[in-house]
Amino acid sequence: MSINVYENITDDVCGSVWFAALILTYEAIELTKVKGVVLLKQTEIQYLAKRICVKDVQSARISQWCNGDHLNNNYNYLRAVNEERRLTRIGEFNGVKEYPPRLLDSDTQVFTAEDNDQIITYGLLFRWYSEVYSKNIHLNEIIRATMEQELIIQDYVGINELQEDDVKEKLNRYLTSLGWTTHIAMGKIRGIDIDAYKGTERWVIEVKGCGSRSAMRVNYFLSMLGEILQRMDDPNAKYSIALPNMKQYRVLWGRLPKLAKERTNITILFVSEDGAIEEGY
């Protein structure tokens, strides 16, 4: 480590986990000049958190409690990328428990850099976190970093679950009932899955089915995002992705950062077996 950290500066156990990840991320990007996404070992986060906190920091704080991608988490301080972790950016969970509020006073000294003995305060570090780290990122990096983790969500798939053509048929009935004229690519026909028109309005929709495994659904979700982004050549059209109304797809959409949704204006259509359609933003 190229810094000398001040020890025992907080009694907030979960806050110390976030803070340790922040210090390590800052060191990697600003001092070591690491490019791209900074991934951290859980053990190195725990080791530094124990030095920062006056209380003991158990490994479950990193693997579960502060891991925004764990089903039983309490905080969204970290993101899971396989067995490693990265620091959450502001806005990835729509501002919900992404960092601990008022962890330290802004003038609290946190560490000194070995190269130049510069003293880094909490205020300086938090400004870097909010103004640099949380904003200096491209859309494709947001999507990739958010979705790289393997989701451990198992939905039972029976013979009556909606496959891709089932979703298209239900959407076709829904759209025609609202006065849209639809062009639908059924089966293995290439092209836009649903290209709908109503007067001067146009609605382009990419569709996937339920899939048979958790990992398959993650791949479906990622691939259709890529497909819809490539089709966005009409500034006057509305663009959506459509999926069966399943828990995992809802979780995946919820984990897509708000920033990514705002930049693309893509909506999602959750399609239920009874034909009900719910649009999400």
Provide the gyration radius in Å.
22 Å
**Percent helix:** 25-40%
Based on CA inertia axes, which overall geometry fits? elongated
Find the structural class using helix and strand composition: alpha+beta
Determine the number of helices (DSSP H or I, runs of at least 4 residues): 9
Q: What percent of residues are in strands? A: 15-25%
Low-confidence stretches: 149-159
Structure description:
The chain has 281 residues and is of the alpha+beta class. 37% of the residues lie in helices and 18% in strands. The chain contains nine helices and eleven strands. The chain has helices spanning 13-31, 42-52, 60-65, 122-133, 139-147, 164-177, 214-230, 247-255, 258-264; strands at 3-5, 78-81, 84-87, 109-113, 119-121, 181-184, 194-198, 201-207, 238-244, 267-271, 277-280. The strands form three sheets. Strands 6-7-8-9-10-11 form a six-stranded mixed β-sheet, sandwiched between helices. Strand 8, helix 7 and strand 9 form a beta-alpha-beta unit. Helix 1 packs across helix 2. The longest helix has 19 residues, at 13-31. The protein is elongated, with a radius of gyration of 22 Å.
